[in-house]
Amino acid sequence: xxxxxxxxxxxxxxxxxxxxxxxxxxxxxxxxxxxxxxxxxxxxxxxxxxxxxxxxxxxxxxxxxxxxxxxxxxxxxxxxxxxxxxxxxxxxxxxxxxxxxxxxxxxxxxxxxxxxxxxxxxxxxxxxxxxxxxxxxxxxxxxxxxxxxxxxxxxxxxxxxxxxxxxxxxxxxxxxxxxxxxxxxxxxxxxxxxxxxxxxxxxxxxxxxxxxxxxxxxxxxxxxxxxxxxxxxxxxxxxxxxxxxxxxxxxxxxxxxxxxxxxxxxxxxxxxxxxxxxxxxxxxxxxxxxxxxxxxxxxxxxxxxxxxxxxxxxxxxxxx
Length: 320
Fold this sequence. Notes:
Number of domains: 1
Order of helices and strands: EEEHEHEHEHHHHHHEEEHEHH
CATH architecture: 3-Layer(aba) Sandwich
CATH superfamily: Alpha/Beta hydrolase fold, catalytic domain
Distance between the termini: 26 Å
Strand order of the largest sheet: 1-2-4-3-5-6-7-10
CATH class: Alpha Beta
Number of helices: 12
Mean pLDDT: 94
Shape: globular
Radius of gyration: 19 Å
């Protein structure tokens, strides 16, 4: 018997999408996903950001399908996948994806993730089963910046951590509080100045309706990354990497980093992955927002295609 909340328990919140959705039983969770493209093409696994469901990639998927057999997933606690109270850790989510690759994809795959999904792309590039991962895309990942006590640079408390904590405080585990209006009113004085001015819609957006705010507590408290030190993880990377780094700046008055990952932290990511013996293609897009694959899907896809074409990858063999 599962202890989590299934999509059927929340069926009234979902909306239809362009691509058909499927679910696979991974044991603890049933993972929701969509797929598009020729089944004989190279495989590409897309991993969404925190609070993003698979359909955040809807604009990019048809373009990517010109070259790849694409799979986009909902992580546990997001979209139509199982919500798992008390079980939101990077290690658990990474192992969900290891099982997904075995049971659904069945071949070595390129992985691409944004933000928290980018950390999971890094996790897979380090810790997946031998032969599962061919190459990895880290799309604007908060490596080091998502940690409470990072080896390099600013901690999560100076990044997105306050937003995640606010979501959890006002919405509650599994939306048990759900005070959206209270959160909107409190944001101006609860968030740091560089975050306080962002507009909040009158009603919860669809992506947050599909998101378990306990994720926010897990990431702001640090429990999501317990046992998953970023420097150690990056030192274990075993495949070529594409790292896209988006908008960032330092507030001259407070010294706070505005953006997912600072230049200092990005430099250390590149240094550690290179020391692990793997090529890392760092590409800076300082004018690009966090969600490149949604903001400019053509640029996102072209960047992946150009990088993938430059790689000398081993011939495809089944995994499992």
